[in-house]
Design a protein that fits this description.
Arc Repressor Mutant, subunit A, three-stranded antiparallel beta sheet, 1004 residues, 39 helices
């Protein structure tokens, strides 16, 4: 008797007890069947066979009846033959062994034949059920395959390979049947990740495919194996394809790949081709998904308010919602030229933390493939009625408007850019500094270009912005009703999300209309904050730089140095080709600032200032250069050097600047260029970092340039924007101070962009690119479906790119920080520096500075009017801006905000090229500028391609724009009376008392 349950459990867990129980179970089976345990053997059997059979029975008896194992008859034959002598092994067959076993064991064993050619019979105890025997033999076949046959090293084929693979397939079928792919709903973007695939793909299927793909995994299948991310990606893709085809459905990978191809290329043929090979879902399923997703979005419309997919209710500044709106134009080539597409596109940005990303649920799967356009759906893309005000409202006036807009800007804002130039200059070993005379820094450039430099030591930001696309307003974008509808939809969306203030960004044209709507409806839009698109404003500022400095030598510098093509330079300096324009100006800035610093240190050495500077300055500078790649140490050292630089170097730079301006007008002109580009870089840096204060400082600094360059639209509306942003509610200001005003599409450092640029990069690019709305703008249902689902499919496409290892660049290394890019950028800057030193006039050379303003490329002197206009252009712009702000935006003033802004009257080098009347072959007379420099360049080109035009012949003609005998070098006419110039001419000639011998014999 057992005294307790614990003792009973202990006995049951004992191995000896379990074996005894199995033995008695076998005895009971034999007794109930009432069969003898052994049958008399035939007398004809040889003694050798008898002894072999006895040993064989002894070997398998316990496995059959005690352990209840299942054997293949073929395997038993092989085991039995091992006991036979060599001369008898080949004569014994499975049929002989079967008959011998049946006679010996009788009904105590079961020998079950299997269907199929070459399928061996099963041998097992009669107490084992048939289903148990089949399951056991499946495992038996698999184990025998891996343990008994090494196919990689054995050239002889296994006679049972097909059987083994068939058994393996049956096991995989069983596991795949246990995995149910959901057909009632579509997977979300998060369910298309590799991590999620590892959760639902059958482990045995995944392992089997991995063994086929990776020899290392195959050889170490019984131990833990560390798989590479690349092999895992391919293994799971193949496993999901097998699983999808097996179940006749689609896996997350299958659907995601189809949607990605449709999103990126918009090609039905591509999707169907991949589907026909079993790699993705069908195009029909893609259409069904888009329809289901659009219907899912429509169900969220309540009272005409729409909260896009992926946007969650607000919970403070950590989930701030902003919207960008811009016009999207698709010039559809219709037969009659009508029905072209001009609408208002919208993009919503909500800041999120990488550690708090909500998992969006899947979308219910519907059977329809076409969207049913209801009245509610039509309303969300239609334009609302709006009564245009009879008169234009003016902006609010402030008592201290002039002080707010024109508050002094700290000169130290340029320090970080100057330090960057100085560090790159050290790598070229061209800075003649006392501490660097005996030890060159490096043989190659180690400091990246501007963006790479700032990203290298910037701290990573864990926040990013989720992008969603509200419905397009299908109406002319510049109509007041369209802008009003856009503003109203944005306000309602923010209220639905629980955000008190709505924030919206427009380009200048739409911003002006939106402000007028707001001023005329303050009761409705009192909490509506309008922002001026910084990307468009900066493009306008670049055009201002081009107007002031293009003809002064900037254009020739970029072209003649081989950095950019002529037409590209012309477009860039007009404010187009934004990325190229920013890069070209940064290259020119570094080249000219390097020359500025080199001349500055030479001046300091001449004046004896270098010897008075503490050694700590140079030691800290060298430490910054040495520890640039050491992020933490560099931040600390650079901070120390910035302080030393401001204390010891900046005052000397100001002194040198004053001396240079006093000595040369050309020095002042190009020093003004450096200051203008520093404003450009400050504005970009403000967005990249998310520095709200620096953003406002740079916007203020642009205003005088807008006025002097006669960019009247931005000159009128930028002061309004600055005043609005200086007086935004504290709740919004506190959010902007944290940097969320800049849009970050992914986590990382130094990657913020303007809201209007983010709009261009998302909804505008998607609509015009592959898979956009080209070709469907006249189909209402297709357009609605595209608009409601584009951002959803975009999230899935981004997740699929991330799954493929293509979604994100390496956040730790910027493209400009890679060795090839560093070498390329440094070569271009070095070429610019060499070109200025060898082929142009050095604008900052204090040894022989040009007194007047000259074109550093041609040497052409500016007229007094042009020189005075260019050198005082900033003062002129500031004066015009002050008058405008004081009269139209200040209290107790009655200036008309919409009144004409007086032109600045700016004169540039291009004003010196007067228009000449030219008569064409057709008889038409036109006025055009005849540029002597351009004509001379063309003539030089002709000398290389024509035999009848040589350089000697070309130089025999006067090549100056003016006769040097009648004009001074600056273009002013030589003035004297008619009686004086013959006397002066006589004085220039030598006196002869007789005719030269060469003409004495010649007759006059």
């Amino acid at each position: 008797m057992f005294t307790s349950d614990n003792e009973m459990l202990h006995r049951l867990s004992s191995d000896s007890f379990s074996e005894t129980a199995l033995y008695h179970d076998a005895c009971i089976t034999k007794y109930l069947l009432r069969k003898p345990s052994k049958v008399a053997e035939d007398a004809s059997e040889s003694t050798e066979h008898e002894s072999a059979f006895t040993a064989f029975i002894t070997d398998i008896k316990d496995d059959l009846f005690v352990h209840k194992k299942v054997f293949l008859l073929s395997n038993l034959l092989a085991k039995f033959c091992s006991f036979l002598p060599d001369n008898s092994k080949n004569a014994y067959t499975t049929q002989h062994l079967r008959q011998r076993l049946e006679r010996y064991f009788g009904n105590t064993i079961t020998i079950q034949s299997q269907r199929g050619q070459g399928m061996s019979s099963l041998v097992y105890s009669s107490s084992v059920s048939l289903s148990e025997a089949i399951d056991t033999v499946n495992h038996l076949r698999t184990e025998s395959y891996f343990h008994l046959f090494d196919l990689a090293n054995n050239s002889e084929s296994c006679p049972n390979e097909r059987q083994i693979l068939h058994a393996a397939a049956s096991i995989l079928h069983k596991h795949m049947r246990e995995t149910n792919l959901p057909n009632e709903r579509y997977p979300s973007s998060a369910e298309m990740s590799l991590d999620y695939s590892l959760e639902y793909v059958p482990p045995l299927l995944k392992d089997f495919v991995m063994w086929l793909l990776d020899l290392d995994a195959y050889e170490t299948y019984d131990v833990e194996f560390s798989e590479s991310r690349e092999k895992t990606r391919k293994c799971l893709a193949l496993a999901e394809c097998i699983l999808s085809i097996n179940q006749g459905s689609f896996s997350p990978f299958h659907l995601g790949l189809a949607l990605q191809m449709h999103h990126m290329f918009g090609s039905r043929l591509l999707v169907e081709t991949l589907h026909s090979h079993g790699f993705c879902a069908s195009y029909t399923e893609v259409r069904r998904f888009l329809t289901s997703a659009s219907e899912h979005e429509v169900t969220k419309i309540k009272d005409g308010t729409y909260l896009p997919y992926g946007i969650v209710p607000c919970s403070g500044q950590s989930t701030l919602i902003q919207e960008g709106a811009d016009n999207v134009d698709i010039n559809a080539e219709t037969v009659d030229g009508k029905d072209t597409f001009h609408s208002m596109a919208r993009a919503v940005f909500q800041v999120r933390s990488s550690s708090d990303v909500p998992r969006t649920p899947g979308i219910k799967r519907l059977g329809e493939r076409t969207v049913q356009v209801s009245e509610t759906v039509s309303e969300i893309i239609s334009c609302l009625p709006f009564n245009k005000p009879k008169e234009r409202k003016e902006p609010a006036r402030f008592s201290n408007a002039t002080i707010q807009v024109f508050s002094p800007v700290s000169k130290n804002a340029e320090v970080s850019d100057v330090i960057w130039v100085l560090l790159r200059l050290l790598s070229r070993n061209k800075a003649h500094l006392p501490s660097l005379a005996s030890q060159p820094i490096t043989e190659h450039q180690t400091i990246p270009f501007w963006t790479g430099y700032h990203k290298e030591w910037s701290f990573a930001n864990s926040d990013f912005h989720v992008v969603a696309y509200p419905p397009i307003v299908d109406s002319k974008p510049t109509d007041m009703a369209t802008v009003y509808t856009t503003m109203k939809r944005c306000r309602e969306m923010c209220q639905t999300a629980g955000q008190h203030y709505s924030i919206q960004t427009f380009d200048q044209q739409l911003y002006a209309i939106a402000q007028q709507i707001k001023w005329s409806n303050m009761s409705e839009f009192g909490n509506h904050i309008l922002r001026l698109g910084g990307f468009h404003a900066l493009s306008c500022f670049i055009s201002c730089i081009g107007k002031l400095w293009s003809d002064g030598g900037l254009s020739d510098l970029l072209i003649d140095s081989g950095t950019y093509a002529p037409c590209t330079v012309e477009q860039m300096l007009l404010g187009k080709q934004f990325n190229r324009a920013v890069r070209s100006l940064t290259l020119a800035y570094e080249a000219l600032k390097s020359l500025w610093l080199m001349a500055f240190f030479d001046w300091c050495d001449t004046e004896g200032h270098l010897s008075n500077l503490p050694e700590e300055v140079w030691e800290t500078l060298l430490s910054c250069h040495l520890h640039f790649r050491d992020n933490d140490h560099f931040v600390e050292v650079s901070s120390s050097f910035s302080s030393l630089f401001e204390i010891h170097i900046v005052p000397l730079m100001e002194e040198y600047r004053k001396a240079g301006i006093a000595a040369s007008a050309t020095f002042q002109y190009w020093d003004m260029f450096l200051q203008a580009v520093e404003i450009l870089l400050q504005n970009i840096r403000a967005e990249r970092y998310g520095d709200w204060n620096l953003h406002l400082i740079s916007m203020k600094a642009m205003i005088p340039y807008f006025f002097v360059a006669n960019r009247n639209n931005y000159a009128r509306w930028t002061p309004v924007y600055v005043l609005d942003m200086l007086n935004i509610p504290m709740e919004v200001k506190s959010s902007f101070d944290t940097g969320v005003f800049a849009i970050r599409q992914k986590t990382g450092s130094f990657n913020g962009i303007w809201a209007d640029m983010a709009t261009e990069k998302t909804i505008i690019r998607d609509s015009k690119g592959h898979g956009g709305i080209k070709g469907i703008t006249t189909q209402k249902t297709a357009l609605i479906r595209w608009n409601l689902t584009r951002h959803i499919v975009g999230q899935i496409s981004a997740e699929m790119r991330l799954r493929a290892g293509l979604g994100r660049d390496d956040e730790d290394v910027h493209d400009e920080s890679k060795p090839t890019a560093i070498a390329r950028d440094d070569k271009q800057v070095s070429n610019l520096i060499s070109h200025i030193e060898e082929n142009m006039i050095h604008p900052f050379d204090m040894t022989e500075p040009p007194k007047s303003l000259v074109n550093i490329s041609t040497g052409l002197c500016a007229t007094p009017d042009v020189e005075n206009s260019l050198l005082h252009s900033l003062e002129t712009g500031t004066s015009l801006a002050r008058k405008f702000v004081e009269s139209t935006l200040s209290e107790n003033m009655s200036g008309n905000f919409y009144g004409a802004i007086p032109r600045s009257g700016i004169k540039t080098f291009s004003e010196m090229h007067k228009k000449t009347k030219l008569k064409c072959n057709s008889g038409v007379t036109v006025k055009s500028v005849v540029n002597p420099e351009l004509i001379f360049r063309r003539a030089l080109t002709l000398t290389k391609c024509r035999d009848d035009v040589t350089v000697e012949k070309l130089m025999s003609f006067p090549i100056g724009p003016i006769p040097t005998s009648l004009f001074h070098d600056d273009g002013t006419m030589r003035k004297m009376s008619n009686q004086i110039w013959p006397e002066n001419l006589k004085m220039k000639q030598p006196h002869h008392s007789f005719f030269p011998s060469s003409i004495q014999n010649q007759r006059l």
